[in-house]
Amino acid sequence: MAIYSFDMLPNRKTPAGTNKNGAASAFLSTAICCCFLLLISCSANASQHADAGYVRLRSWMRDNGGRVSDRFGVVEKDGIRGIQAFSNIEEGSELLFCPWHLVIGSSSLQDQMKSGDGMCSVVNEMAKEIRLGADSLWYPYLDHIGGQRLPADFNSEALLELQELLTSQDATRHLRWFDQRCDGELDVTAKQSLVAFISRASEVGMIPIYDLFNHHNGKRNAKLTLTEDGVQLLVVGDGISSGDEIYLSYGLKTASTMYRDYGFVEEWPTAWNFQTVDGNNFAFLQFPNDVVAINPSADLLRAVWQSNTSLDEYLSLATAHTESLSSVDLETFVAAVENEHFPTTVEGDEITLAVLLEQEGGESANDSSDNISDRISAIIYRMAHKKALASAKFYCNTILSKRMTMGPQEL
């Protein structure tokens, strides 16, 4: 069985040696409802507070030589904060321009952030600016970022809820990277800076306002461009209609990587992967309508990541790919899924989740409530993984059953 390893070409970086353009081993998904997107980092304050902070941040950007279009703004829908177009915006339009002197990590087109020590410098510089408080040039930006929780923050109890889908070793890899590579103590402020860097940095570092845009590979309609004077965010595709959300792409990554580094699972296409006890790796991309691309090829992954196309076309690509696989390949995948065993069922997870949600509603904001929220996040993630496996298995069996009932001339 092949080991999946594809170079993904994203626009965000991460430390620990795995750049987010990195090789995704054992590649890849289920379409997860909006509540799953709330796992950690997509949670937001009340929209009125978010708008006030954004207005201040936008004024700061403009006062310091940047440009921010008035045709979009921060909105909150179903508890998820994002950027929405307030009018129709044509392809090629500039949404944001940030001069190099406001980018934390790069000072020019020729002097961009580099991996390794360069990333350490960004984390340490940002921590220094956070400690300066209102005296920092970047205060309106850093104050607006706020705190968020990733699996790196989980205690042992919350990590156990992941049922080995994300190990403690993997969850804390960025913390260990900082300890091994960066010259500085990982105190509360440095950890805040590191978490912000992991979940928000672009390939050139921290770009104010740019990191407010949410991720969606299937609906991305904006792309970062580097210029001599700074960085621009431009509209791509067929333009953006009034009322539509504006999305970036953080790259095509496995669901476990998205969850570890950003705290959420992508709506679609979601890239799931798993490894059997004998070391074989399996992967699948999941789309809406329970359509699944089993063992996606490098060409299919590039097509999904590089194209701006309709959902129907994505579904057509995924369907054609899976139906092109041999029955042996599909049967092997089904057998691998059937050999996946977990300590709990989805039904049991739902009961545990309901209990924790009730406890969370009665807790005040303290360490205990953080742990409950982390456990809720972990249970939602493991439920999504199990449902994705079941959906992929069902899709394969549907194709296999169809083949059994059709004559050779019809296949």
User: What strand line-up does the widest sheet have?
Assistant: 3-6-9-8
Q: Overall 3D geometry? A: globular
Low-pLDDT sequence parts: 1-11, 16-50
For this structure, the CATH topology of the largest domain is: set domain protein methyltransferase, domain 1
Bin the helical content: 40-55%
Derived structural class = alpha+beta
Strand content: 5-15%
Could you tell me how far the N terminus lies from the C terminus, measured between alpha carbons in angstroms? Answer: 25 Å
How many separate structural domains? 2
Sheet of most strands: 4 strands, antiparallel
Structural description of this entry:
- This protein has 411 residues and is α+β, with helices and mostly antiparallel strands.
- The chain has two domains: 5-39 and 251-401, no CATH class; 47-157 and 167-248, Alpha-Beta Complex (set domain protein methyltransferase, domain 1).
- The protein has 13 helices and 13 strands.
- The strands form five sheets. The protein has a four-stranded antiparallel beta sheet with strand order 3-6-9-8, covered by helices on one side.
- Helix 2 packs across helix 7, helix 11 (327-338) runs antiparallel to helix 13 (367-405) and helix 12 (346-361) packs antiparallel against helix 13 (367-405).
- It starts with a strand and ends in a 6-residue tail after the last helix.
